[in-house]
Amino acid sequence: MDTETEKEYPLNTSRLTKRQDDIGCKQNMKLDQFSCQTQMKLYRVHATLLQDNEDKVVVEESFQTKTSSKDELKESSGEPPESTSSSTLESWVIKFEQSVNVLLTDSVIKILDTLYHDRNYARFFVLETIARVPYFAFMSVLHLYETFGWWRRADYLKVHFAESWNEMHHLLIMEELGGSSLWFDRFLAQHIAVFYYFMTVFMYIVSPRMAYHFSECVESHAFSTYDKFIKAEGDELKKLPAPEIAVKYYTGDDLYLFDEFQTSRPPNSRRPTIENLYDVFLNIRDDEAEHCKTMKACQTHGNLRSPHSYPEDEFEDEGNCVLPQADCEELN
Ligand SMILES: [Fe+2]
Ligand SMILES: [Fe+2]
Questions:
Q1: TM spans, by residue (predicted)?
Q2: What is the count of structural domains for the chain?
């Protein structure tokens, strides 16, 4: 299983190599090398867990990592790898990708700020319509790769579907609150969503790391949007009833998918109480923080794991490793 798992690097292994993950650790997350190496040993990809009884998918040799065994040995012993020029190039690529993402996110935020500065529910409707598109795009590409027989990544598909399911319920809540009542808002949201879908598919094919970082930027913005709203309107929200769909989603009997997208916590560890509209927005905000953590974890290959794939005590064992969630922890 381990040998098979190690082969399941994504298509874009020219970028998402093990050493590049280290670069991300060193340069983006500002943790020392020991922490990064320890973290990578702790996390394992369990992408083949659901296919144990199925035929093995042969992974194309051309998608193997660029990291040489010599460099891997040096890295594992704490020595720097030989090809530092390649590492420097990769760090610039990462910086470029992240700069483009920030620019794209800021541009969309400015447009929404201009159009929706005085209509919160309409703004949230547009945001939620767009927010679930990346997960559909990720699943589309992963399905395509699976169809080609390149690899299977069951955990990624399952977690991304759970994320999409969660965002869909945010959208249903906004619709119940009247956010989609104007034709213009629906037209704008749906057309942005179509553009956003194809853009994310292209980005995910070229660089999964970049696509996940872009999604992290969007989720981070969603968190701060709801956080500001709760702080500004909290007293009023506490007087209003919760939409029926919110009560059903957050307090229903089957919360498997609710647990599934929260990859940094064990199942059954978060069970919201919904008594009024304030509780609803509080939990939507917290959902966005969980999405942010999951998107951050995805940027380092091998970090993503289905919460249901591990025994609960393994969360405690690995709880002191904050690498994938370092920035998103600030959101809570
Ligand atoms: Fe959302
Ligand atoms: Fe979101």
A1: 124-145, 187-206
A2: 1
Distance from the alpha carbon of residue 214 to the mean position of ligand 2, in angstroms: 12
Distance (Å, rounded) from C-alpha 10 to C-alpha 141? 11
- pTM of the shown model: 0.70
8-19 pLDDT per residue, tens? 434 333 333 333
**CB count in 10 Å sphere of residue 226:** 23
- Nearest-angstrom CA–CA distance, 153 and 47: 4
Ligand 2 centre to CA of 213 (Å) is 13
Whether 38 maps to a domain, the answer reads no
First to last CA, the chain: 36
How many residues are listed for the chain in this entry? 332
Other Cβ atoms within 10 Å of 292 Cβ, number? 27
How far away, in angstroms, is 209 Cα from ligand 2 center? Answer: 18
Token code pair at residue 231? 């702080």
8 Å CB contact between 176 and 243:
yes
* CATH label of the domain that carries residue 240: 1.20.1260.140
Q: Which residue range forms the structural domain that includes residue 186?
A: 96-307
Is 327 domain-assigned? no
